[in-house]
Design brief:
Strand content: 15-25%
Helix content: 25-40%
Distance between the termini: 44 Å
Number of helices: 8
Number of strands: 10
Organism: Brachybacterium tyrofermentans
GO molecular function, one term: nucleotidyltransferase activity
Protein name: 2-C-methyl-D-erythritol 4-phosphate cytidylyltransferase
CATH class: Alpha Beta
Shape: globular
Keywords: Nucleotidyltransferase, Transferase
């Protein structure tokens, strides 16, 4: 099926798919297991994002991408920490390979028009809000691609010598710190990832691949400071504080 036909079909009768990536490790957190399965307020870090994406109106399919070694943890999560149908697959050696495998897993349903949009989210960002995920999905359906971002402030330009430029620290209003979930037209992003695989292109995130291989405008919506990525042990402690401060429901 051609991309044009796929686009027409998906816009007529599609649903969105939420993809949650959990390919990291616990090394920098100081844990012996994948950080996505560390506990946060009574349930695993990954379950927070999965449950949030799964309750966004329009999201009808959830895919959880994990390392082969983490399949047992993923199945425990599916059985104990969510009531939502969860399709568990194994990913690749890199983030991009894992995204490609997730898109290929969905390809038949994308071609059939069952899925019109894909939201790709990092499991290590557990505190994404329902409102932000819904806003990204809405923007992606309007323009073809959308990412959440926080305006980057207090950025200092650096000269080639390695010293700060004469103007000193300043705010660059045109820069944002990109977050997830990132949403894209499903047919378009599938084609982009297949093209990237043929070329051996590796991007930093979903948006970078879209920018390289598509002509769709990637818009941004205002992200949230609480939608931070858990990388170090102090991030996990901060996430616990946010859960307590906001009175979020725990497991």
């Amino acid at each position: 099926m051609t991309q044009t036909r796929r686009l027409r079909a998906s816009r007529r009768r599609g649903r969105a798919a939420g993809v949650v990536l959990a390919g990291g490790s616990g090394t920098r957190v100081g844990a012996g297991i994948n950080k996505a399965f560390l506990p946060l307020a009574g349930r695993s870090i990954a379950s927070w994002g999965i449950n949030t994406l799964g309750t966004v109106e329009g999201v009808g399919i959830l895919v959880f991408v994990v390392r082969p070694d983490d399949l047992e943890h993923a199945r425990f999560l599916a059985g104990r920490e969510t009531d939502l149908p969860l399709e568990i697959i194994t990913g690749g050696d890199t983030r991009q390979e894992s995204e490609l495998l997730a898109l290929r897993h969905l390809a038949d349903r994308i071609d059939a028009g069952v899925i019109d949009t894909v939201l790709i989210h990092d499991a290590a960002r557990p505190l994404v809000s329902h409102g932000l995920a819904a806003a990204v999905l809405h923007a992606a359906r309007e323009t073809g691609g959308a990412v959440p971002g926080i305006p980057a402030t207090e950025i200092a330009p650096v000269a080639e010598s390695g010293e700060l430029a004469a103007s000193g620290a300043r705010t660059l209003d045109t820069l944002v710190r990109v977050q997830t979930p990132q949403g894209f037209d499903a047919a378009t992003i599938l084609d982009a990832y297949e093209a990237a695989a043929r070329d051996g292109f590796v991007g930093t995130d979903t948006a970078s691949c879209a920018e390289e291989y598509t002509r769709i405008p990637v818009t941004w919506v205002r992200g949230e400071e609480t939608n931070f990525k858990i990388t170090y042990a102090q991030d996990l402690l901060l996430a616990q504080d946010v859960v307590t401060a906001l009175g979020l429901r725990t497991g």
